[in-house]
Write a structure and sequence with these properties.
Shape of chain A: elongated
Number of strands of chain A: 0
Largest sheet of chain A: none
Strand content of chain A: under 5%
Helix content of chain A: over 70%
Radius of gyration of chain A: 26 Å
Structural class of chain A: mainly alpha
Oligomer: homopentamer
Number of helices of chain A: 9
């Protein structure tokens, strides 16, 4: 569980709201339904237009990854792969059949099943690289939903602000309304810019970092499995895999 | 049929118009012919200057893809290719001649015809990759028409706004006109920014996602056909193709 | 001749000027010498600083391509290449000697001369790919002159506007001048943004599209000539080349 | 120790503060707690949301590199590698065993140990390139923390400014507060833009330059070690390595 | 000597100053020490923070290249290389020993010395490509110093403008100062934007063009030398090298 992300959200919101209080402003002046409807609705709508349905669903689920990224057990996995290589040397590839069935990680499990099937190393690499590439592409598409939202929200905030200013301009005869009208208009800008810079873009970047690390982890597993298929000795495999460790 | 896109358009427009009503504005204040002429005409003109005629026509037709993307029948196609590989093992490649004639998808059909002609796997791959690359390039060119339009429309909206402000400034002597004049000028900004962020850029991104998925689908077909040409067994082909499935 | 480009210029200018008239503005208020001098002179100067002399000259000449792109005779050229492959099968490569001399397209002619000289396919490909890469690089450099100009002109328009505002600010005592002074200042913005978005960037993008298509066309020719050099049969060559057709 | 960086910070701050004094402003008018809280807190929060914990820690430590970059001893290392190649020719690879143990640079030491183990050149290259790639990726991730911060801080400065303006607008009745209120609001912009352009982005770029140079240095070492493994003569190795020298 | 660059600087400055005069402004109103200190000092400081010392020195020297680019003698060099290939055919590679010593261009000279040493073509190519890559990287790093400066200066101009506006706002009680105060503030914007768009970015782009052309020229030399090492006949070498000519 990655608490830095949650902590970051609190720091950012605390700075904005605390800064407003320090300046003598009322927090209530930052809360406004109209601006919220325009920015959230407009951004959501723009994202819905551009996103295929399954990508949209995956993006909704992937948001959890920012606090609970999928498990990456680097050293543990290195040890497991070395163990597998020893078994395959002693008992042959078929000795890994039960392990392939019980392996909980679907990527490792699929690699192992190809290995047990007796596929040659080149074939395992090719098939799993297609899988890896498609997994990465699908996950990056989902992460880019947040990036796109972070691209749209500031400009939609500006639409909200300009609409507010139009409203103000049409009621210029009542100057007492001027200031507060403009104030209200500006809140849409804050929502748009704030949503992008304090939430959407950081979320997108966090997801990309998580995806990148996961791809690297799967590449390590694939390297290990093909090394087993090539019959390399456990010592060499260990050397290879430790190069992936930070 | 991808309803999320249509739904997204409604959400986005609903948020903007609803937000305006919430704020006490008249929807009519967002409707203005001059701004519409400037933004739509200017953007359309800029796009016409830069786009070769055939790309312009393809872009006009491709707009339908955002709600009706070309069919991608992943699993069905995997089954069809495995079926073809079995036929080619039993009856030889010529057994696929009738199937090649009747295959409705032009890409698959062309692959099959090259296969039946007895082209070697490397030749099939080379020829079809040229075709695939050119198809992708042509479609991306068409999608970029919308992306370019989304790049031009906000700045053309600003041209409209500045022209409106010039008009206002020249009539400063009549202050009663000031507010509504500026209001009118701002509508051009909303049209330009809104067209880009709620329609043009999301459409371009949706088209790119559709194109990307289609290219991947065709790559899968090509992988399957070359595997048949190499005489691989149906089990291996299935393993290969399933790696493309999400 | 590509009329869409000329038509696009008219649509864009018509929208801007028509929009101004609709709004009740005088077209004359959009015509201003000072702004023109600043934007055109500044942009031209910036481009001159950055562009080597021969690239600058090529860019000046290449502007014609936006309405008269170099001829791309796809199908006709496929037929010619197939014809050549038949001649080379009947009469040997020397049978192409006269054709090489008379071929009007310099790229095809150079390929043919290398073929007649008896260069091996790999050598032809290597030499002509260097030529192709250098041609593309040189043309893209020239197209980027317009892209750069489109990057500079909006900010130089802003320089003009700010200079105008400075002038206005120094004469604040005479408020009757205020409005029209600001109006004049804003025209520079319109010139800068308009030149970029309605002319310079679309021209650059059009040139890039033309260049891209021409490179693809030359790649097709090169593929055909190397296939002749490899002695492939006309049927296979036709299959290869048709993959380039849209 | 790279003093240019420290000197640069002083030049930049001196120019800003000196400029303010020249203009007759009080330096105190540039010091403001609220703006500081909003910009620093908001930027820090956004960065925390997006950065995995270990990357965040590495970025905190890497900041020292901008004045004390890791040692790159080009010529000295070339001489050392040539020395090693001579030893390996005289005493065999095992003659390098003690040197591998004592080598202080971890990258060189790891390369040497693989060499002494008798790994073939291709294996050394593969393993160390994975290590090199992962090192570079990890360091660039850390450098991008500053780049991201430099992307967020200006927009968060704008949030601070807009919040200040809202506050001003709500107190329009007291015009005597107007000017100083706006002045305070603008300080947030200066903090955001200044932090990005005078500190965060230059730091990120400096770190990237340091990382790039270090990667190149490690590539040189790896090239030398694999050349030793291939048994090349010291003269050829020297030629190879000197090509890396500036 | 490339006069277009100098001419461009004059055109750009002439347009700005001439435009100001046309508008009835005093040239003196564009001259202001404070703005100059802030923009030049701030930009220089930011660049110093990010640039390693040797890159900074190289960038300072490379500025001369914009009017006096390093000599590229295309045709002359082609003739020289063909001459060398003839000598090597008649007298063997050792016949080039004196020529290698006397060759003034360091890149050609180094290639020739490797050739005379009897290195095989693949080794010459590998060593010189490392050299070429490092040269290009080092020069691009230096050119990017100007690009970065062009990225920083507009925003630092904005810092100057905002600081000016703060100063104005704090002295609102004296409205007679208002206009000229704002005017002074705006000059910083003009300096920042002008420095970037009329000098720094065009200089960076010019340097990149010069570097690109030089790399291409060195690639041609390297291609020629490796062709000599491979013992190709002068006719073939000429064909190869002429493909590099524009």
């Amino acid at each position: 569980m990655d608490v830095l992300t949650l902590f970051g959200v609190m720091v950012a919101l605390g700075a904005i709201i605390g800064g407003n209080i320090l300046e003598g402003g009322h927090t209530s002046s930052l809360v406004q339904l109209t601006a919220f409807v325009i920015v959230v609705g407009g951004t959501l709508g723009a994202v819905m237009v551009q996103t295929p349905f399954n990508v949209f669903m995956r993006a909704s689920k992937m948001i959890l990854w920012i606090v609970m990224p999928p498990k990456i057990e680097g050293e543990e996995t290195v040890n497991k792969i070395i163990e597998w290589s020893k078994i395959s040397r002693k008992e042959g590839l078929l000795g890994l059949e039960d392990i392939a069935e019980q392996e909980p990680d679907p990527f490792s499990s699929k690699c192992l099943r190809l290995l047990v099937d007796g596929s040659d190393p080149e074939a395992i690499r090719k098939i799993m690289e297609v899988e890896l590439g498609n997994d990465e592409h699908r996950d990056l598409m989902a992460a880019k939903v947040y990036e796109s939202a972070g691209g749209y929200s500031p400009t939609i905030g500006i639409i909200g602000a300009v609409m507010g200013l139009i409203h103000v301009m049409q009621n210029l005869k009542d100057p007492s309304m001027l200031g507060s009208g403009i104030a209200v208009a500006f809140v849409a800008t804050i929502y748009g810019v704030g949503a992008a810079n304090l939430l959407l873009l950081p979320i997108a970047n966090k997801l990309k970092a998580v995806i990148g690390r996961r791809v690297q982890y799967h590449e390590m597993i694939l390297d290990g499995i093909t090394a087993i298929a090539e019959g390399e000795n456990p010592r060499t495999i260990e050397n290879k895999l430790l190069a992936y460790m930070p």
